[in-house]
Amino acid sequence: MTPWIRLERTVIKVAGVDRFSFLQGLITQDLKKLAKNDALYGALLTPQGRFDHDFFVTEDADGYLLECEKDRVGALLTLLTRYRLRAKVSLEDLSDHYAVVACIEPSTPPQAADIVKLYQDPRLAQMGWRALVRLPFDASGDLSLYHTRRIQLGLPEGSLDMEVGKAIPLEYGLDLLNGIDWDKGCYLGQELTARTHYTGILRKTVVPVTIEGMPPAFKEDLYLHNTDPSAPRHAVGKMLSHQGAWGLVRLRLEVLDQENVILEGPDGARLTPQTPAWRKARG
Asked: Are residues 154 and 227 in the same domain?
């Protein structure tokens, strides 16, 4: 039996004759590529190029389905409504009808009558499969297994890791996770995002870490472990989400150039950086 895991995500439907031009001008992905892909991963940024929402985009007969964070569906609907202006577009929250589930096994799950859309995770194949399903749906898998897998692979998860209105998408690897299309036209926040990309000026990145001790809280400062207690300490990173003995941290790039790096949290926890799977895959 397929171990489906229900995720804390939901679905918004974008329909209407102007749906393509409306979304195409807002998000970081090129919707034309849905013709060759079951799903796309993309984001909606602020005008200053900072993270606002991320989502997976699929398509049905008369609209686009945005798989987004359930706790922030109202904020996303409000934002899309603000940008709709005179576009002939309808927006519908399908939270009462659809759920989002994942299967972190590599083999293709069997199709079932309640599955509306089934697709391999477009960020990394190692994350397995996702599906939009009609409610009610039996998904008894442990959510912690999903978060452990994505943290081990170095995958940020929406606002659990990326601070809304402040996070720079390229520091979190969204471009290397197939979340940004560099060949499409303009989108919200495109100018500053492209400038960062083409100048190559990045100071931080996200990496998974193994944790010994009590995991630091979200956004707590991390320091290089130093055996000399009298030596001055300077923060080199911040803690993001964690699950069990694994976590994600946002770390200064120059730290990764050092050998045998060990980080330390404010309460003495030791964190050992690992190479994200997406960096291994793309060099």
From this structure: no
